[in-house]
Structures are given as structure tokens and as C-alpha cells.
Hints:
Blueprint: E1 37-43, H1 47-62, E2 66-74, H2 77-86, E3 94-96, H3 100-105, E4 111-114, H4 121-130, E5 134-137, H5 145-161, E6 165-167, H6 175-185, E7 192-201, H7 215-221, H8 227-230, H9 233-236, H10 239-249, E8 255-261, E9 273-279, E10 285-292, E11 299-306, E12 309-312, E13 317-318, H11 334-347, H12 355-374, E14 378-379, H13 380-384, H14 400-404, H15 421-427
Parallel strand pairs: 1-2, 1-4, 2-3, 4-5, 5-6, 7-10
Antiparallel strand pairs: 7-11, 8-9, 8-14, 9-10, 11-12, 12-13
Helix pairs in contact: 1-11, 4-5, 5-12, 10-12
The structure holds nicotinamide-adenine-dinucleotide.
Amino acid sequence: xxNPQTRRTFIGHTAIAGAALAAGPLFGAKVPTKGSTLKxxxxxxxxxxxxxxxxxxxxxQILGMESKVVATxxxxxxxxxxxxxxxxxxxDKCFGGYDAYQKAIAEDCDFVLMATPPNFRPLHFEAAxxxxxxxxxEKPVAVDPVGARAVIATGEKAKAxxxxxxxxxxxxxxxxxxxxxxMIDAGAIGEIKGGVVQxxxxxxxxxxxxxxxxxxxxxxxxxxxxxxxxGDHIVEQHIHNIDVAVWFLGRLPVSALGFGGRARxxxxxxxxxxxxxxxxxxxxxxxSQCRQISGTYGRVGEFFTGTEGSTTGGGKLSGKEVDIPxxxxxxxxxxxxxxxxxxxxxxxxxPLNDAKRIADVNLVAIMGRLSAYTGQLVRLADVTTxxxxxxxxxxxxxxxxxxxxxxxxxxxEPPIPxxxxxxxxxxx
Length: 428
Ligand SMILES: NC(=O)c1ccc[n+]([C@@H]2O[C@H](COP(=O)([O-])OP(=O)(O)OC[C@H]3O[C@@H](n4cnc5c(N)ncnc54)[C@H](O)[C@@H]3O)[C@@H](O)[C@H]2O)c1
């Protein structure tokens, strides 16, 4: 059988789980109160990182607080500096480089927002929790089973320290989705028997290699096209829709069997389409479908058929009338509401902790990817409990290699299902 565990990775075989680092000095995480100023640091100063800072500030405003950005960190100094300038951060608190996260975390902040490529998330999350910070960790939180399980372990540490951990799965904080979930739980569509979840769109962007750019910098910049950094788009983007399936059904699938390929992608080594049967047991199947090909029909959403009705994710529901509580959100923007919910949960003394939930959903998306890459059936146990499975210790590489300067770039070619990866590489 194809064995992704034995293939050469671009950065060797060190498990992420062993990659804990000595974090900065410990600060007690502050409990926010009305009128207080919440100090925040950002790791990953791209589109979402800048957006998350604005969302955090908007949430503070809703709750009658101020936000102060005390540090920024990015692999690239110019990005850390540009974001810092926009948010009034002193120049010497804008850190560049692959170890910049350590410096930002060591600053006097209560919250750390993380929006780098997801392969770095387990490492950065662990460092922030070690340092006693509340964490907002963008989805996805890992690109391989080893990383996802590390996030679960770090989440437990966060729980023991009373730290909040919230992820950027904004559908879970959006009124329409919350209402439909409550209606499903109240029996409005009976028992869910099947459905489809989709993210069919275009390639978001390609960042071509610049003259003289190192392998590491090229990959960190063009990360959305390398599965070792992004997890491929089934993990990076489609995780939102898979999350809704897991949430609405209230359980994880037992296995994934899928296929995919690459028709038009011009950069990196990812696929550009997947179709995966997620078997949720009890004869319930959800088709998980995603595509990133320009010029094709676009549809993003979720649809479920129940024994007594049907529903889309956050929209129309047809079924029985049921009573559910009123939902009053502070913001109609889920990306702001998730920060409100995070801060409020700390104020209420019950910090939200999304780590296991998102890591589990992440594992489902990874199962789908591994099935499509290898052409094999992948069971949930293969990535969670069965240590004898070839998928169990599968790692896309050690993110610390970026700090050590030992990154070796893979070929910009996608995996071929049915062909053992190691053999294929030997042929080159
Ligand atoms: N919740 C959502 O709806 C949503 C939307 C967009 C993106 N995201 C997620 O946010 C994350 C970032 O996405 P983006 O669109 O902002 O990408 P981006 O490329 O715009 O930003 C990523 C930033 O991280 C930096 N970076 C790379 N490696 C780093 C490292 N080791 N240390 C520090 N910085 C590093 C890059 O230089 C870049 O500035 C991804 O996980 C993505 O999936 C979530």
C-alpha cells in the first residue's frame, strides 16, 4: 500500500510533537474588564492577520474595552513592519524572521493572534500557551496527524492554565448557522441521513518565486500552493464546510474514501480538486467536494437531508416547527463575534477552548486529503489511535527547519494516487 509516512519530506522526519521550544517569560493572563485595555500580539501579518487585528479591536469596542497591539511578527520583516505601522506598534516591536514569533510572544501581551500558514500553528500555539497567553488560532491548526494531535495536547495545557483558545471558524459564531443547529437539535428536520458540503471556487493566489529567494522564503510566501504548509485546499479552505457537517451531525466520520487531482494549478504541489465520501456510520454519508479552478462553476456551502426536512448550513431550513431560544448576536459578522465570544468567555470565568474540536475537524480534512493522495481508504482510527497505521505518524515535516535554515524544497508536482510515493521519488 502507498505509504506517505515513508516518503521524503522537505524537512526530514522529525515529529512536530517533539518541537516544543523554550517560551519567553511567563505572564499571568489578565481577565478583561469593562474599560480595560487588552494587549495583543500578532503572528503572521498577511491578509487574515491584519483582518483579525481589526476584528479583535471591533470586539473590544463592543465590550467597552480598548485594544492595543504591542508586537507584530512575520517571517518577513517588511510585513511585520507594515502591519506594525498601521496599528501604531513601535518599530522595535515589529519582528521579522522565522523565530519572530518567540519575540512577539515574549512581549507584555495577554492575547496572541496566529495567522501564519497552518504548518507553523502547532509550534506557535504551544509557545504561546507555555507563555500563558490567550490564543486566537486561525484555522486550519495543522497539516498532518502529528500536528493535529499536538494541538489537542496543547489545548489540554491551555485548559489547565485557564487560557482561552478560539479558532477562526466563524460559521460557529454566525446567527444563521447557530439558529439552524439549534433547530436541528430540536428535531426540525429529523435525523440527518446525508448531504453535501462544498467549496468550489478558484485558486486564491499564486506568489511566484522572486530572484535570489531561498527555498524557505519562496515556500513561506507561496504557502497556499504547497501542501506541506497549507494542508492542501481541502484542509486550508474546505475545512469550514467540513466543520459544519461535523457540527450539525454531532459526530466525526469513521472513514474517508476519495479522489482528486490537478488539472490546472501552475505552482506548488497541491491538487486542485477533491471529491471525498465521508462515512459517518449508521448509513450516513456526506460528500465533501472542493475545487480551485478558475472558470468553473462556483458554489460554497452545505446541504443536509433529514428524515423530516432539509437545510442548508446557515440559510433556509424546511421541516417541522420547533421552539428554539432567541439568538442575539453582538455582531452580524462571525469574524468579529468569535473575538467577542472569546473575550466574554474569559470575563465569565469559563474560557472557550476550541483546540480539540478544531483539531478533530482538521483530522477529518487530512483523512480526505490522504485518501485522495494515496487512493486508499483512510479510517479515523488511522490518524487518531491506531499506531500501526502508516498514516498515524505521517508528518509533513518539522516547522523548526525554517528556523534552522534546513528546509529542502519538494518538487512542484502533485502526488499520484496508486503509486507509492517513495518509489516515485526514487525514479526522479
Ligand atoms: N477564517 C477565515 O475565514 C480565514 C480567511 C483567510 C485566511 N484564513 C487563515 O489564516 C491564515 C493566514 O492566511 P492569509 O490569507 O492571511 O495568508 P497570507 O499569506 O496573507 O498571510 C500569512 C502571513 O504569514 C507569514 N508567515 C509565513 N510563515 C511564517 C512564520 N513561520 N512566522 C511568521 N509569519 C509567517 C507570511 O509572510 C504572511 O505575511 C491561514 O491559516 C488561512 O487558512 C482564515
